[in-house]
Amino acid sequence: MVTYSILWPSGNLLQQGLDGSREEWDFKEAARYGLYGSLGYVDQLVFAPFNISQFFLGMSLVEGRPLDEALDEWDQKFLSTWMVSATLQQTYFPASVSHL
């Protein structure tokens, strides 16, 4: 979460620097990216389920398993993996940051 709150505004400022059409820096825009990046629950609620699914399904298929086996493994492991990752995030980040 801290990483996102640094990387996202940094990436935005880099993009602004490379964008030839801008005449000046928009620090409010970069701050909005930083705020959004600090919202760790967005990652857990939106991106984590997709990433976990991609990992289980992708690894199974790369290992040469049939799709039905890959889906069975996803069905067995997805919910518990997502619950553990969400719990760990909420446990190890301060409440003042987790509830932004």
Task: Give the beta-strand count.
Answer: 0
* Rg value: 18 Å
Quickly count the helices.
5
State the helical fraction: over 70%
Order of helices and strands: HHHHH
* Domains, number: 2
What's the overall geometry? elongated
Q: How large is the share of residues in beta strands? A: under 5%
What is the mean pLDDT?
83
> Largest sheet at a glance?
none
Structural class: mainly alpha
Q: Poorly predicted ranges (pLDDT <50, ≥5 residues)?
A: none
**End-to-end distance:** 11 Å
Please explain how this structure is put together.
- The chain is mainly α and 100 residues long.
- The protein folds into two domains: 1-38; 40-100, no CATH class.
- The protein has helices at 2-18, 27-37, 40-62, 67-92, 95-98.
- Helix 1 runs antiparallel to helix 2 (27-37) and helix 3 runs antiparallel to helix 4 (67-92).
- The chain is elongated, with a radius of gyration of 18 Å.
- It starts with a helix and ends with a helix.
- The mean pLDDT is 83.
Could you list some keywords that capture this structure?
5 helices, mainly alpha, 100 residues, single chain, 2 domains, 0% strand
Summarize the structure.
By secondary structure, this protein is mostly helical. It has two domains: 1-38; 40-100, no CATH class.
What's the structural blueprint in terms of helices and strands?
Layout: H1 2-18, H2 27-37, H3 40-62, H4 67-92, H5 95-98
Helix pairs in contact: 1-2, 3-4
